[in-house]
Amino acid sequence: MDKRAVGIFDSGLGGLCAVREAVKMLPGENIVYFGDSGRVPYGSRSYDIIQKYARQAVSFLKSKDTKIVLVACGTVSGVAMDYLKETFSDIPLIGVVEAACVKAVGIARKTQNKKIGVIGTEATITKGAYKKYISGLDENCTVYAKACPLFVPLVECGHLDGDEITRLAARRYLGEFQNLNLSSLVLGCTHYPFIKNTIGEIVNTELIDVGLEAVHVLKKELEARNLSNTPETKGAPLIYVSDEALNFSRIASNFLGFDISGGVTKIDIEKF
């Protein structure tokens, strides 16, 4: 048994998708989350800046004595995982790319339809991590990738499912996917499940939540490394942000299903 916390981070609200699933799947684990709300979005940044932000996030989580870190950010997972693993060889790191790709290829083989869609930030799609990994698993799969850069700022501003602005953006980005008959669509950014219903209205296929798939891997890693914790009681997730917490707390509380307004702390991430 290891009582240390599980660390999770993202550029902002998106990684709370992983937190929500981790609370369900890992009821014995204490969770420390960092959302870089002061510097969101990451997807339009240069690779060097993304690496810097990711390094600071992991450094902060390590300062909280975490035993493992889930990189719940599609952009960082697609651009900077090798860099992070080289920089932090003393702590296990899990990204969101691999598990989602395995899921997508599994669906493609089961349905005998090897057309897979992937949406993500500009940096994620440009880097091509999802496409490369899927092709490595099954070279017969055809990947249709699309950058949707407005989705992250829309979610951060509270334009979620049911919002007409979000619906218009989704129609603009995803209209070309409607007639492709995809076996699945990988939501390659953890912000996207906040607007999953809107995306599903336009692309009628199985939607793959990268945060959910990554938490399945996190659970297996904790068990394999004998890092699991099974206390009788544990606290609510500790949540840290890099900007004012008011809007973040409101949206996060609605999404998580429990009030976190009193448990969000602003930090100076530049110190790490």
Give an overview of the whole structure.
This protein is α/β, with parallel strands linked by helices and 272 residues long. It has two domains: 151 residues, Rossmann fold (3-Layer(aba) Sandwich); 114 residues, 3-Layer(aba) Sandwich (Rossmann fold), CATH 3.40.50.1860. It is built from twelve helices and ten strands. A six-stranded parallel β-sheet has the order 4-3-1-2-9-10, sandwiched between helices. It has a four-stranded parallel β-sheet with strand order 6-5-7-8. The two termini are 29 Å apart.
Give the SSE layout.
Elements: E1 5-10, H1 16-25, E2 31-35, H2 47-63, E3 66-71, H3 74-79, H4 81-87, E4 93-94, H5 97-111, E5 115-120, H6 122-127, H7 129-137, E6 142-147, H8 151-156, H9 164-174, E7 184-187, H10 196-202, E8 206-209, H11 210-224, E9 238-241, H12 246-256, E10 264-266
Parallel strand pairs: 1-2, 1-3, 2-9, 3-4, 5-6, 5-7, 7-8, 9-10
Helix pairs in contact: 1-11, 5-7, 5-11
